[in-house]
């Protein structure tokens, strides 16, 4: 278990009316590929909340090599939720992320995106080519080709179904992480405290309700559009920046076969790309095998 994120480095900014929580730490102006921007996974409305704390095993190692910025995506962590059901879309998440990066005037970025955040990071590399110099996609089933109508939520539906009923928020969060983990071990008390605060908060409860009633109309179709846009781009012009794909061999949420499918598409048009599969690691590979993951990213920065 690592130390929690340093609260002195956690800040807030308003992006187009959305109060946004983020972390800003490390060595500024450390050279090419900095700052390193960490984009967490999940999406608003999933039963267990997700925010910048997921990177607690990664921030210190990377911050020794440059400035590290991580932010709570729209409607997640402690960032505000969308104002109306119609705004609960991937396009809204993308617009918010673009606004955040532009408001901080971040350039020469290395984007590191996990799971749903891998899809977002790839879109950001497409939308902001003048600001992004490197891309790391981590365990992102969202970027992999999928048959029309196929959902990747079956794993999470089963985790939610089997969650303990009387263990409180901390018990549910521990159950969720254990279902994904291979070698991570117990979560730190501070991680559990903050995640439980998110889960018990009014924003998270409202997001679960909105997702249940409107995801079929808004979120799920928008996710399909985003995946198609990325795959079309990768099969068309490709990406002009170096790309590192990292996957856990034992990922139960996004099986490594999906990583190979994504890499096959990526490598067709993107010349400078590499895939690394980490043994004895699950979906949150950066928490199961943090030293291996961190060294891969650090090496990629200097490649």
Structural class: alpha/beta
Tally of contiguous helical segments = 11
| Number of E strands | 8
| CATH class category name | Alpha Beta
Q: Can you give the helix content as a percent range?
A: 40-55%
Explain this structure to me?
- This protein is an alpha/beta fold and 303 residues long.
- The chain contains eleven helices and eight strands.
- It has an eight-stranded mixed beta sheet, sandwiched between helices.
- β1 and β2 form a beta hairpin.
Concise description?
With 303 residues, the protein is an alpha/beta fold. The chain is 41% helix and 16% strand. The chain has an eight-stranded mixed β-sheet, sandwiched between helices.
List the helices and strands and how they pair.
Blueprint: E1 10-15, E2 18-26, E3 36-39, H1 59-63, E4 67-71, H2 90-103, E5 109-114, H3 116-127, E6 132-138, H4 154-161, H5 168-180, H6 189-200, H7 202-214, H8 219-235, E7 243-248, H9 256-269, E8 273-278, H10 285-288, H11 290-302
Parallel strand pairs: 3-4, 3-5, 5-6, 6-7, 7-8
Antiparallel strand pairs: 1-2, 2-4
